Amino acid sequence: MEVANNVPQPTIMVTNDDGIDASGLQALVRTLVSTNRYRVWVCAPDSEKSAVSHSITWRQPVSAKQTEISGATAFAVSGTPADCTSLGISKALFPSVPDLVLSGINMGSNCGYHIVYSGTVGGAREAFFYGVPSVSISYDWVGGISSINDFTLAAEACLPIINAILLEINNKTFPKNCFLNVDLPTNIPKHKGYKLTKQGKSIVKMGWKQVSSDAQGNNISNMLSTMTNDPNSVALNTDAKSVSQENRLFIREVKGGAVDDRETDYRFVKEGYITVTALGALSHADNDCQTFFKEWLPAVAEHASSAL
After folding, report:
1. DSSP the chain
2. In this predicted model, what pLDDT tens digit does every residue of 32-79 receive, in sequence order?
């Protein structure tokens, strides 16, 4: 497809971790298509793949089945979000490399340490590894307050960011040493604007609980996508009587949350901002750790030499 002045439309590829039928992805694709400004491709998991982080499929082939999403070319893939991105930008599935990869819109925010767990972020990070500009997008879904329509509002609120990124890409000025993570607040119509933030240390603390066999796979879909801080949000069947000692079943349960109150992503999205966080892929320790081990390691080496 081309616009009237014969300048090719930019190509956006969309993936996610909630699955190709998820409301967040569907709303994002529908919003992108409605602008008539982009060529839209979709390469997303054929089922729920939340919290798989950056895992990839290595020893088995993955399948890609073309599926119908109005206005887009779409494939449902039997792999992880990182698999989907890798396949989608490889030119093995689509005829060219997309200009921009969007991963989302996730049901639940991805802030703090949850960025490490997130398959949504993993989908964007995979594109970054291969030099393709990318953005992960998540909506701070709250049960009993949020509705499916909020995903459309989230997608519309992201359009200025998407258009600005594509302009920088066209001008060859978009930074190559990072990708972006965008989180949208629960009350999108009353958001306070865009806020550049940094990754914090907020996390939902998890434990394990033994469950009966009929609880396997039940009552956990909310936790899979949102990893909520509310310990009462996931109801579990805790009757373990029917489970044999040889094959006991355990399921994660929310124990509480450690919230980072500093000026970081989690705090600002909870305050109502649309947070924009530049991420990389290197895991550097804090400076105080580097200082400690700079003195510690020579002492270990000296002790090892004296012991010989």
Report:
1. -B-TTSPBPPEEEEE-SS-TT-HHHHHHHHHHHHTT--EEEEEEESS--TT-TT----SS---EEEEEETTEEEEEESS-HHHHHHHHTTTSSSSS--SEEEEEEEES---TTHHHH-HHHHHHHHHHHTT--EEEEEE---TTT--THHHHHHHHHHHHHHHHHHHHHHTT-S-SS-EEEEEE-S-GGG---EEEE-----EEEEEEEEE-GGGTTSS-HHHHHH--S-TTS-------TTS-GGG-EEEEEEEEEE---SSSHHHHHHTT-EEEEEE-S--PPPHHHHHHHHHHHHHHHHHHHHT-
2. 999 999 999 999 999 999 989 999 999 999 999 999 999 999 999 999
214: left (phi over 0), alpha (psi -120 to 50) or beta: alpha
| pTM for the structure as a whole | 0.88
Each residue's pLDDT tens digit, 1-25: 444 456 689 999 999 999 999 999 9
